[in-house]
Amino acid sequence: MSTATDTIEQLATQEYKYGFETLIEADTFPPGLSEDVVRAISARKREPEWMLEWRLKALKAWTGMTEPTWPNVHYPAPKFQEISYFSAPKNQKKLESLDEVDPEILATFAKLGIPLNEQKLLSGVAVDAVFDSVSVATTFKKKLGELGIIFCSFSEAVENHPELVRKYVGSVVPHTDNFYAALNTAVFSDGSFVYVPKGVRCPMELSTYFRINAKGTGQFERTLIIADEGAYVSYLEGCTAPMRDEHQLHAAVVELVALDGATIKYSTVQNWYPGDKDGKGGIFNFVTKRGKAMKDAKITWTQVETGSAITWKYPSCLLVGDNAVGEFYSVAVVNNHQQADTGTKMVHLGKNTRSTIVSKGISAGVGQNSYRGLVKIAKGATGSRNYTQCDSLLIGDRCGAHTFPYIEVKNTTSTVEHEASTSKIGEDQIFYLRQRGLATEDAVNMIVNGFCKEVFRELPMEFAVEAQKLLGVSLEGSVG
Amino acid sequence: MLQITNLQARVEDKPILKGINLTVKPGEVHAIMGPNGSGKSTLAGVLAGKGEYEVTGGEVTFDGKDLLDLDPEERAREGLFLAFQYPVEIPGVSNSYFLKAALNAVRKHRGEAEVDAIEFMKLVKAKMKVLEMDPAFLGRSVNQGFSGGEKKRNEIFQMAVLEPRLALLDETDSGLDIDALQVVSKGVNALRSPERATIVVTHYQRLLNYIVPDFVHVLANGRIIRSGGKELALELEAKGYGWLDQGAA
Lengths: 480, 249
Prior knowledge:
Shape of chain B: globular
Distance between the termini of chain A: 36 Å
Distance between the termini of chain B: 31 Å
Number of strands of chain A: 18
Low-confidence stretches of chain A: 1-14, 127-135, 208-217
Radius of gyration of chain B: 18 Å
Strand content of chain B: 25-35%
Mean pLDDT of chain A: 83
CATH topology of chain B: Rossmann fold
Number of helices of chain A: 15
Strand content of chain A: 25-35%
Low-confidence stretches of chain B: none
Largest interface: A-B, 23 and 32 residues
Helix content of chain B: 25-40%
Oligomer: heterodimer
Largest sheet of chain B: 6 strands, mixed
CATH architecture of chain B: 3-Layer(aba) Sandwich
Structural class of chain A: alpha/beta
Radius of gyration of chain A: 22 Å
Structural class of chain B: alpha/beta
């Protein structure tokens, strides 16, 4: 993709015409990226010097990088100088009632069974006093605070817990890691921060609250979750409600640190706007997610990816300590013109480390779905095991499923198993269910949900129910 | 209840059914026999609405409704049940989940209240007893990893739960040992009533020792060439199909 390289070169040579002084005043930065832009973002957020230094190092690294072209996805290269890298958080124009919201969106809310008050929040309608999200959040935070758990925005963490942020940020995904991680590091706006102290089990899913507050999701998000020794936390990201966003490019970074004996469960439901039926519009979702598991620690990634025009995402585990466990459970759906290249990396470094990969890819329309996974077992990771199961389901005959497994084993005492299957939703399966009285769409839903069962059971209960419905909505009209 | 008049159907360009006439009244059991390739399974498939068959002529009414005008799921909800010759596997979907969804789809159509999990279990357990089934079966995926006999038993179990007005059994006896055959027949007979009818499609007379038909029809080359009482099956058993076939060809 030479255009991408051209863009980068232009970027490196071109002078940004807005100075630092202008930027610091502006509500929204004019498009373009330069050192001044990065300095201005950092200044606006009143960040300490070390944070700015780190951002600048990332910018420098990014300027020398080229956009990755190895994923099995095709799209016009984003024009990085045409993106605005900072908008001051501003209040959305409040609507008076749900009557003013796009009926199509309301119909989807109804299908997903989203409560009325949440519908209002998600679509920017003023909410009555009874349902005050601020007070919900406050009660929630108080409860967590009593246990010493920190759950706040990334910016707040930089301000209030700089020592923790400084120690761990970039420790799992370095600023030089890849093109989009470097870009994110240079310009990230905000994100989430979690710290669970030694031996503490976080008593609630960090979720319901989060969904309500996720309306201002940024383009370049940064998430850092630290579970100290023996701690446990389950974190839910995303929302089943369809999310539209004016930004086309999303490049988030998520870092998980599970210290000795800790457990982190990270669940995602991603339903960004996928573009229309002809493939126009839609979000480019280029995400770097990685966790580091120390001795006896465990990291579980569970994802349900139904949205975005292009998805490029490999939630990974570095199994550093002995006996560490990494798990990846994924459902990725592409319909119409969507393309997904997703999978995981399991890097076994410690002895007797174990990893499990269960990937379910569903392709419909003319969608293209690729599983890409790396299982790497280092020389010292003796007695390690990996089990990979990678299943693809095709709906119709114009879509595609692709599998790219990479396996590297450097010792003789480890075991790696890989199972893969590709199947098509059979006319005979659909007919069988219809003969028992089920409508075609219910039949397809039932078959698809059965196919994804092993992943859904890893999701927290209420999320699993929503995810099932979401699958149905995403595949609507895929069978004629 | 079921009135088939001059029914013709083909698969791709090949005519299979060449003018079937058949009347089934409530309470009756009809057996349709015939050599391989005579169109027995096609007839069952056409009645259930399987997409690969194209109806090229004739008509079928079911309780006064134009059956051929209904979608497969509407036929099912109207009370037509097909016990498949080759039941399909649905991985990851438990038998109980599937069957409860099916039962409620049918009940909803009839204007009855949907059953909840407790009522459903009560109903299902009673039916399982008749068919000598292990309750653990409910948690297993639909037909996945089932033996041939288990699949057939599952078909009859579903039929017992859904209580159709008209049951079509497509070669339900194939692949069954004698014990399974008896159990399956018990299940079918338990459902016999003056309001319901059954069409048994079979190659062999054996099944008809257990499910005794009121009428036997011989299908050859897409037509019913002979109809009679249960003794016709015995005659066929003794003489083979060749004896009738010549006249039809």
